[in-house]
Amino acid sequence: MFSVLKKSLVASLMLSTLAGQVAPAFASGTDDLPDMGTSAGSTLSIGQEMEMGDYYVRQLRGSAPLINDPLLSQYINKLGMRLVSHANSVRTPFHFYLINSDELNAFAFFGGNVVLHSALFRFTDNESQLASVMAHEISHVTQRHLARAMEDQKRNAPLTWVGALGSILLAMANPQAGMAALTGTLAGAQQGIISFTQQNEQEADRIGIQVLQRAGFDPQAMPAFMEKLLDQSRYASRPPEILLTHPLPESRLADARNRANQMPHVVVHSSEDFYMAKARVLGMYNSGQNQLTSDLLDSWSKGNIRQQHAAQYGRAILALEANKYADANKLLQPLLSAQPNDPWYLDLATDIDLGLKKNAEAIARLQKAPDLRNDPVLQLNLANALIQSGQNEQAAQMLNRYTFSNPNDTNGWDLLAQAEAALGHRDQELAARAENLALTGKIDQAITTLSSASSQVKLGSLQQQRYDARIDQLRQLQQRFRTYEKR
């Protein structure tokens, strides 16, 4: 069994992993720290980091309790990209994911991939605090901390580190699995990197607080959240997971507080989306515990208008989760009447209507939504409602367009497979399921499933050629990924 220190060492290194991103044209300002990212280029190229990121994302989808909720994914990616647009040294695209976990943590890895644990919504008091955690992770990425660690450890082959980092990633994403699987990969980790990773943490704080401030959030939120974490650890038998993977000595808190105090004082109100997301996470993804408490809802009911809306929305969620569809509908109607095009309300109204067997009403409401053409959340809701009402041909047409535009969304492929199965299109059902398998890291199964799809259609047909061409693509991907598989 590894000590907390060694776990902190390599897990923090993993968190520091990070590659740059596609620099937004409107990124502004310069950071007060030198851009060290380019110094790591001789160890790992940006292209290699992105390929490794793709590999690990697929493993994450297949083994971690990701929350594939389109509304929540849309919210955290919108919030994350707001921060990224104010970051420097951005060299790869960014993607943000949410894991259903009561362990308080966040981490980032190759290719601009940032993962948040759902417990963050329970412990952050406002949107600026949540943004401060994300800004910290984004800064790990833009500074390419892991690649820089590899540069300092030239005697270690980079791909030796890859195996260790993959194990750490999956253990952090799914804490219930424990750290036992890390025994082989961590055996060669060197204690001398600890001070380097602590420097990474402070560097990510310093750059992150600048990103936070430039993006229009309260810079005081970063030291405030750190202090909250330290306070919690003082009265707990075991510190929060985030403190094991992000060492937080008092010096880090003092430095963050000092930097925040030097920035202009601002009053920042959390968006309504933040409160809606918090209500949804606590109400729907609560690991069997009622985290959306009456105390919280009562507090919001006495707050500002955004909090009042979230309180009403939260009560409707609790009624829906209890299968009290009529009660949920009654609670939601005032909100929906006032804002009939709000995606949070439209999504919940769809679930309520389907629960009440009012499929036609759900479909009609969604089809009238002005943002339907551009909003993936509404499109998925409509496709699901169409399937539930037996209109599978229309759903399949819609989902074929959706998966073309959103090929990395497992929700789209899953719904398409359902629609094609209902239509009796066995080959197309298998093809959709194969895409889902590939996205969750099961490339072998994806190839086998696509081969079955190919055997279902006429020999030499255009459809068979399309399936076979996709099989070739997956085999090439499989060959590239073999480098990163544990041996």
UniProtKB/TrEMBL annotation:
Record flagged with keyword Amino-acid biosynthesis: no
Residues binding Zn(2+), per UniProt: H136, H140, E201
Signal peptide: 1-27
Cofactor note (record): Binds 1 zinc ion per subunit.
EC number: 3.4.-.-
Active site, renumbered: E137, D205
Family listed: Belongs to the peptidase M48 family. BepA subfamily.
Protein name: Beta-barrel assembly-enhancing protease
Organism: Mangrovibacter phragmitis
Lineage of origin: Bacteria, Pseudomonadati, Pseudomonadota, Gammaproteobacteria, Enterobacterales
